[in-house]
Amino acid sequence: MNDIIYMKKALMLAKKGQFSAAPNPNVGCVIVKNGKIIGEGWHIRQGEPHAEINALKKLTENAYGATVYINLEPCSHFGYTPPCCKSLVLAGIKRIVIAMIDPNPLVSGKGIKYMKKHGISISCGLMKKEAESINKGFNKRMKTGLPWIQLKMASSIDGKISMSDGNSKWISSVESRKDVQYFRAKNQVILSTSKTIIKDNPSLNVRYSDMNQKTQSYFLNAKIKQPIRLIIDSNNHIKPFHNVIQTQGKVLLARLKPDKEKWPKNTKQIIIDKDNNNKIDLLSLIYKLGSKKVNNVWVEAGSQLAGSLINIKLVDELIIYLSPKILGEKSKDIFTLKKTLKISETIDFRFKKIKRIGKDLRIILKPKLKSKSYNKEKYYEKKLS
């Protein structure tokens, strides 16, 4: 019973890194001796000490004979920081309770093997599902090479995202738009299209002033790590005057060929292979993000990109802000799919969570079937070389 209590504490600490730790995983650590917590810590950002080291630095007494609770296997290799498992051995830790083995092949099982060899008792698997849920993007990238993709849409109750004249401001409520800031802040990349940029001219950044109070409480002095804005722009429509370019933070323009515009320092053009329709190859683009250590991607775009991502089974979570409005039959549908589906071909999702946000419902759905398995080596070696 005490193991569960302390592991819950470690998981709570891990979540403190959800806005800053990427591309590293969210990790929390609790050190217990004689039934008392004597040290705790979490991983804040890449290049800085890991959770175990931060916990050891905050010890209130000697850790000899203590038990460590941690949601992810301690690292065993030299990266930006030295191996944590060696520090735990040197500290005299007697027992370690680990929620899940690290999916990183550089680490996986090696840290446990090292600590066992040096006399530390290891328990593994406690609250494994909870541990997996706070590092979905990291886990998926390590296993498949692809980041975790959340697709956000705002829709009326008749499944429309804009009026027939294209006007979509505002389908969702103020509260829903504040809620979106939380999700933007948690992701490393916000993905959109030139069509959305030209139509709405958004900034697509994270704004402290637009957050709800709960989300604001996560940020000290409004200090925010801005996600990269990635815009699919096959035909080079985006120009330096657009708000997304003028707003502080890094911008990537995914293109088939570069243009000769004079771009500010925050903007870079990246060249992606074309698909059979002479457009950006979405799978190649997403794999490129994975190769650049992107764990989580937040998609805010129109029905066409949404439908394309669903068609090729790249969406891990679909988040719909459902407004109690009816826009009418000539308004634009929420998804543009390539063909008319038969009942046997329907793309099935299952409800994961439904919550009232202002006047809207926020519905989180997961695909009923797992994401399609792709040949990672094909894209890493051939398309991204």
Q: What would you say this structure looks like, in words?
A:
This protein is an alpha/beta fold. The chain is built from 13 helices and 16 strands. Helix 3 runs parallel beside helix 4 (about 110-115) and helix 11 (about 280-290) packs across helix 13. The protein starts with a helix and ends with a helix.
SSE topology sketch:
Elements: H1 2-14, E1 28-33, E2 36-42, H2 51-57, E3 67-72, H3 84-90, E4 95-100, H4 110-117, E5 121-124, H5 128-133, H6 136-144, E6 148-156, E7 160-162, H7 174-186, E8 189-193, H8 194-200, H9 213-216, E9 228-232, H10 243-246, E10 251-255, E11 267-271, H11 282-291, E12 296-300, H12 303-311, E13 317-323, E14 332-333, E15 349-357, E16 360-367, H13 376-383
Helix pairs in contact: 3-4, 11-13
Gross morphology is elongated
| DSSP strand content | 15-25%
Structure summary, number of beta strands: 16
pLDDT < 50 stretches: 381-385
Sheet with the most strands: spatial strand order: 11-10-9-8-12-6-13-16-15
Helix count? 13
The end-to-end span amounts to: 51 Å
Spatial extent as radius of gyration = 23 Å
Order of helices and strands: HEEHEHEHEHHEEHEHHEHEEHEHEEEEH
Q: Roughly what percent helix?
A: 25-40%
Strand count, sense and barrel status of the largest sheet are: 9 strands, mixed
Mean pLDDT over the full residue set: 90
Q: Please identify the structural class as seen in this structure.
A: alpha/beta
